[in-house]
Amino acid sequence: MLGFLFLKIPDGHLLSDGLQSQQDVEVAALGRPFGLGMLYDCREDSLVPGLTLWDHDDLMSHIGERPQNYNDFEIVASESFADKSSALNVEASLKASFLGGLVEVGGSAKYLNDSKTSKSQARVTLKYKATTKVKELSMDHSEEAI
User: What InterPro entries is this protein classified in (predicted)?
Assistant: First the structure.
């Protein structure tokens, strides 16, 4: 399953590419084990494992869940890295981290490394995207911890 992490970074804070944030940041999980309440270092495009700002009970009591039904499909008939990363909605800074070896991909994102092994092969990829629910960590709770 390919997932995404949505980050709220206050306006004016620096991102990994040196730009100041003006809006929410969307990061493709690319097989990495993101979870609600985990810390993410956007300068290094990496998770901060084993560390949260809240204890488990506080974290669980501030998670909201709502249904969000969505599905879509797309047929990708290209072998280029650009088209594959576009199909996975990978942003430019994360592409650079992947190509530079900073990010190792897993799960469905291994598709980025996969290639045909002979000229007699043909490949067509069916991309199917489905969402059934959204889990969110209340931002009011994060302000209490600071």
Answer: Cytolytic_pore-forming_toxin
- Identify whether the C-beta of residue 55 lies closer than 8 Å to the C-beta of residue 123: no
Q: Which residues pair with 129 in a beta bridge?
A: 72
Q: Name the pairing type of β-strands 38-41 and 25-28.
A: unpaired
Type of residue at 109: A
Three-state SS for 135?
strand
How many angstroms separate the CA atoms of 85 and 23, rounded?
22
**Assigned token pair, 43:** 């300068």
Give the CA count within 13 Å in the CB-facing half-sphere of 43.
Answer: 3
- Please state the length of the chain: 146
Among all chains, which residue has been given the structure tokens 């097989």?
31
Tens digit of pLDDT at every position of the chain (146 positions)? 445 444 454 555 444 554 444 556 677 777 778 888 888 887 777 888 888 888 888 888 888 899 999 999 999 888 888 888 888 777 777 788 788 887 777 777 787 878 888 888 888 888 888 889 988 887 665 555 55
- Contact between residue 37 and residue 53 where contact means Cβ atoms under 8 Å apart: yes
List C-alpha distances in Å: 51 to 56, 62, 95.
Answer: 11, 17, 26
